[in-house]
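ok so for the tutorial part 2 we go from a plain amino acid sequence to predicted structure tokens. step 1 is just haveing the sequence, like this:
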Amino acid sequence: MFLYILIITILISSLSYIALLLLNLKRNLLHDVTDYLIALSAGTMIGTAFLHLIPESIPLLGGENTFVLILISFLFFFIIEKAIHWHHSHNSSEYKNTTGHMNLIGDALHNFIDGILIAGTFAIDIRLGVLTSLSVALHELPQELGDYGVLIHAGWGKIKALKANILVSVTMIFGGLLGYFLSTLFGAIIPYLSIIAAGGFIYISASDLIPQLKSENKIIRSIFHIGIFSLGILLTYAFRD
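step 2 — the prediction. this is what the tokens look like for a chain of 241 residues:
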């Protein structure tokens, strides 16, 4: 299990390089690729939460406790996001000066938590760990593109922005290692890591990913988005016992 976690967190952390390559694509093509990745990521996150993580937790924690903890986890991710974006209320000049560093801090925390979630789900089941890793990877690529753009907008040079993104992405590896040691030393914590993952996936999908797809007003593209979102759910269903 340790080797799985280490390899996968390293691979996902390397997505900064892929994000840079995608920036060389034509703008319209980049927009299409990003939207489809977001749709697939949203589907796999929702499917993993409702078809795997929650059903796995109910026998161990009980139905009522499971859903109460999911709500707490959902609230936790909401608070974390609000804390990360506290600087949005500043005026425009302050925002431009601070947004680059604040974005990196938020990204580092986000990646660290992703690493813990990946390790926690691998502790439950390898297939579940693979699904979680897929969901995180699909979400991570568009996020890296966005983070790189934020740094450029804040006045960072291209090389400096790339190096910063790569450095911050390494925090996922540390999160994965911490999650592994926690699940190994304290086996009873595994169901709670599963619940944190479920609440986090529901929150990220519902508050971040799906809203990005709702702005599309072209019927054909919207149908494709719905189809790919559904494909993500079906993919997680196929991994059920």
